[in-house]
Specification:
By secondary structure, the chain is of the alpha+beta class. It has two domains: 112 residues, Probable inorganic polyphosphate/atp-NAD kinase, domain 1 (Rossmann fold); 134 residues, Probable inorganic polyphosphate/atp-NAD kinase, domain 2 (Tumour Suppressor Smad4). The strands form four sheets. The chain has a six-stranded antiparallel sheet with strand order 8-7-18-15-10-11, with no helix packed on it. The protein is globular. It starts with a strand and ends in a 21-residue tail after the last helix. 39% of the residues are buried.
């Protein structure tokens, strides 16, 4: 058996990875390890060893940002990702470091690992009828100003039908997974990962009637900038991107291959929302131990 190990370059995660490698080797499990980028540096896929297709799953030691980088590392391979968060539980993490070994024993004992397919977006930038940039996106694609400047005018089309020109600080096109990220902070709704939709959210629109829009996942979004726009940057999952201009057309559609996330027994998406968003209500008895709240009764 082979498993992958994707590690955030942080002392706690690196120390844990070293111990975890030995834990796997003691069980005759081969480990393919890849460390993430250094702080304030961009992760370069071309400089790392790509994962073999026969990995049973990849353990991601770090937060949601590390998980997004691991998804880029896995690319178009159907290898499930198991997120282990240090500290509070993340939106993309299955559990926390405290329950690492218990969780791994549970997953290794599964005859077939239960997973959930998370939709990704395929983003292209077309210039002079040539693709100059392409990326798979698990969370979101964001267009915004690279410096303090006036509002951007962003022309938006759905299936080649002109919808509107957003006059705003920027525009977010997100997956259901990404609905709890930047889009949520910009006032967008939360979409359950199994809802087949694409979310278009303007950032601080000048016109209050420009509201977030949910479109079918079968739709194709095209974005163009107004002729005199300058200093506009496109970023994908907050990790890679490029500067764009009115000469570019950004094309976004559902990717053919999703990212697969390991689902633990008794784990529910709403448990994560309750924990992260601090919603009121009783704790869920069947939730993972990492998300159970201690009783306040005496």
């Amino acid at each position: 058996m082979k498993v992958g190990l994707f590690v955030k370059r942080e002392s706690d995660a690196l120390d844990c990875a070293q111990k975890l490698e030995k834990w796997f080797l003691d069980r005759q499990i081969e480990v393919i390890r890849q460390d993430g980028s250094k702080p304030n540096e961009q992760f370069q896929l071309k400089e790392c060893i790509r994962p073999p297709a026969d990995l049973r799953f990849v353990v991601v030691l770090g937060g949601d940002g590390t998980f997004l980088t691991a998804a880029r590392w896995v690319g178009d391979l159907s290898i499930p990702l198991l997120g282990i968060k240090f500290g509070d539980l993340g939106f993309l993490s299955a559990t926390t470091e405290d329950y690492l070994h218990t969780t791994l024993e549970t997953v290794l004992a599964m005859p077939k690992i239960e997973t959930e397919a998370r939709m990704r977006l395929y983003v292209r930038v077309v210039r002079d009828q040539k693709c100059v940039f392409e990326e798979l996106v698990l969370n979101d694609m964001v267009i915004n100003k690279s410096a303090l400047a006036r509002l951007a005018d962003i022309q938006t089309y759905v299936d080649d039908l002109y919808i509107t020109t957003y006059r705003s600080d920027g525009l977010i096109v997100a997956t259901p997974t990404g609905s709890t990220a930047y889009s949520l902070a910009a006032g967008g709704p939360i979409l359950h990962p199994r809802v087949p939709g694409i979310l278009v959210t303007p950032i601080c629109p000048f016109t209050l009637t420009n509201r977030p829009l949910i479109i079918p996942d079968s739709a194709e979004v095209k974005i163009r900038l107004y002729a005199d726009e300058e200093d506009i940057v496109l970023t994908c999952d907050g990790q890679v991107g490029m500067q764009i201009s009115s000469q570019d057309t950004i094309v976004i559609r559902k990717a053919n291959i999703p990212t697969y996330v390991v689902v633990l027994p008794g784990q529910h998406y709403f448990d994560v929302l309750k924990a992260k968003l601090r919603w009121s209500g009783n704790s869920i008895e069947q939730s993972p131990p990492s998300m159970k709240r201690k009783s306040t009764k005496k």
